[in-house]
Amino acid sequence: MNLRTWKDRFMAVPWIYDCVRPLVVGGIDHGALARFCAVGESDRVFDLGCGTARLAEYLKCQGYLGVDLDAEALKRAARVAGPHARFFHGDHWDALLRDLRPTVVLMIGVVHHLANESFHSIVQRIRSACETPPRIVTLEVAYLPGRRVSNFLSRMDRGRHVRTPDQYQTLFLENDLRISRREIVKTRLGYVSYVGYHLLFEN
Fold first, then answer.
1. Can you give the residue ranges of every domain in the chain?
2. Each residue of 150-174: pLDDT tens digit?
3. Residue 13 predicted with pLDDT over 90
4. What does pTM read for this prediction?
5. Would you tell me which CATH number, out of the four given (3.90.76.10, 3.40.50.150, 3.20.20.70, 3.40.50.720), belongs to the domain 3-201?
6. CA–CA distance from 197 to each of 8, 45, 143 (Å)?
7. How far apart are CA 144 and CA 154, in angstroms?
8. What's the pLDDT at 140?
9. Residues 132, 100: contact at Cβ < 8 Å?
């Protein structure tokens, strides 16, 4: 097992992910992330790849369903999320998505873990399950011009598909997603900058 594999396993531990990773990247402002997501009290939120769901604490919405493949992360999420939150472990979430009828799908820090084909598959599943297409919000590490520290930390990320903003944009357009909002969101100390998108289905 190589050094990067050990590092990835270490950082995947839920407590480490919540407490150590924010220190490395310069402090994560979950309130700022929640404001970027622009979730309202009438929204129904499907949080795909929610992890420990730290963001759920900052969202005031009608309903929230967090889905993840990491059972340990969901145990931690269930302890900190509000009473409006529900969680599901596994990848068979299509029926749950259909029942929720989400107005917002969050994919925070998910896309840079996905190859193009995997992202296409997920977008098609969302499209098929939702009679009314939801807004998709994603916030990703990216390779940004002139941001040496941020780009170095992005290369060290567990995700194997970190892209430039132009590459993310191309990926979204290829999947018939229109970018309605794009924003650079920095950590508290500015070590890392994330690129965030609000995406709408074209048809």
1. 3-201
2. 888 778 878 899 999 999 999 999 9
3. no
4. 0.89
5. 3.40.50.150
6. 26, 16, 15
7. 10
8. 96
9. no
